[in-house]
Design brief:
This protein is α/β, with parallel strands linked by helices and 235 residues long. It has helices at residues 40-47, 68-74, 91-98, 105-118, 120-124, 135-147, 165-180, 192-198, 216-221, 223-229; strands at residues 2-11, 14-24, 29-33, 54-59, 62-63, 76-79, 153-157, 184-188, 201-206, 209-215. It has a six-stranded mixed β-sheet, sandwiched between helices. It has a four-stranded antiparallel β-sheet with strand order 2-1-4-5, with helices on one face. Strand 1 and strand 2 (14-24) form a beta hairpin.
């Protein structure tokens, strides 16, 4: 579904991504784990057309355009780190903004209902100003807004960042529900244990390079991964 080959990203003299290659198959949850500054968000931003890059990104066997709105139109949406909602708009208006490239009114209404079913708390607060929501509710809104673009592939950037443990569990349960809807998910997440627990496939990104890859269950059992990212020490 998504193929990234030899991706390089530069910020001035800084070589942020160094020859990164990943594959995402339809219906999978693929996670990218790594420490702060490893280049995880840069990878998602490159796929989304938000930053310049060298290399190949293909989606459905076609070269992905370098323009963000065309990437969204092709069936990919990114839910950015930090939630980035329209704070002065209502919940309903934020969700409506997610569908701004669409004109299939009947399906848009169906997606409103689907999002409110997935996030009942948003339905309860649909007329509330988004900036007054809690952090967890804002994350739900950002994810719901992404779904309103009718994507086939969703790029999730640190969805659990800054949330209380109970809400983190809720967010990961919702990610699994989104997968059950037939969506494909590329997940960037610092909570490596949670990410590996729900993912099908995983990549480890360190200092801009892929240093390990495999099934998520294999990496979850890997002692090196456990020591570096799961807080466990080798005996």
């Amino acid at each position: 579904m998504l193929k990234v080959e030899d991706l390089n990203v530069y910020y001035g003299g800084i070589h942020a991504l160094r020859g990164v290659s990943i594959d995402v198959e339809q219906g999978q949850i693929v996670t990218i784990i790594g420490s702060n500054g490893a280049g995880k968000s840069s990878l998602l931003n490159a796929i989304s057309g938000m930053i310049k890059y060298n290399g190949l990104i293909e989606y459905e066997n076609k070269t992905l355009p370098h323009h963000a709105h065309k990437v969204v139109k092709s069936g990919i949406c990114q839910v950015p780190e930090g939630r980035v909602i329209f704070a002065n708009l209502t919940v309903h208006e934020n969700l409506k903004m997610g569908a701004y490239l669409r004109n299939d009114l009947k399906k848009i209404q169906e997606d409103f209902e689907r999002v409110y079913e997935l996030f009942p708390r948003l339905k309860e607060r649909e007329k509330q100003i988004a900036g007054t929501l809690s952090g967890g509710e804002q994350q739900m809104l950002a994810m719901g807004r992404g779904l309103m673009s009718a994507p086939e592939l969703i790029l999730l950037d640190e969805p659990s960042l800054g949330l209380a443990p109970l809400l983190i569990n809720t967010i990961f349960e919702i990610i699994l529900e989104i997968k059950a809807m037939g969506k494909t998910i590329l997940l960037v997440e610092q909570n490596a244990f949670k990410a590996l627990s729900i993912a099908d496939k995983a990549y480890v990104l360190e200092q801009g390079q892929i240093t390990a890859q495999g099934s998520a269950s294999e990496l979850l059992k890997d002692e090196t991964i456990q020591e570096a990212y799961l807080g466990k020490k080798n005996k």
